[in-house]
Amino acid sequence: MTDDPQPQKIPLVFFRTAAGAEPVREWLKGLPEADRRAMGKDLLRAQWRWPVGMPLCRPLGNGLWEVRTGLPTKRIARVLLCLYEGHLVALHGFIKKSRTTSDDDLALAQKRQRELEQ
């Protein structure tokens, strides 16, 4: 018998604004059900396998990661997250429109990450 630890699921929480809104949860609710299901499956895989590499997760630097999901609607979605106090925190979600992650999307995730750490 080995002493290998059992895999642990890292809790995933949604970033919450000072006003109590959860922008990523609200964004996910606005997607078609099949897309939500695909995103949920990939977020769950990230929770169970963290730290995960490509093709599911890509490090963006400064503690930010993106969960990469090809959606049934033939679009590509991303959820940007960070690891904070033992939790994965979903900071920002969006439909990818170009090959690179836009500076605006990255800046928003970084701003929310800084708010967490204050």
Outline the secondary-structure elements:
Elements: E1 12-14, H1 23-29, H2 33-49, E2 57-61, E3 64-70, E4 76-84, E5 87-95, H3 103-117
Parallel strand pairs: 1-5
Antiparallel strand pairs: 2-3, 3-4, 4-5
Please explain how this structure is put together.
It is a single chain. With 118 residues, this protein is an alpha+beta fold. Helices cover 33% and strands 28% of the residues. It is built from 3 helices and 5 strands; from the N terminus they run E-H-H-E-E-E-E-H. The chain has helices at residues 23-29, 33-49, 103-117, and strands spanning 12-14, 57-61, 64-70, 76-84, 87-95. A 5-stranded mixed sheet has the order 1-5-4-3-2. Strand 2 and strand 3 (64-70) form a beta hairpin. The longest helix is centred in the middle third of the chain and has 17 residues, at 33-49. It is globular. 23% of the residues are buried.
Keywords:
5-stranded mixed β-sheet; 3 helices; alpha+beta; globular; 118 residues
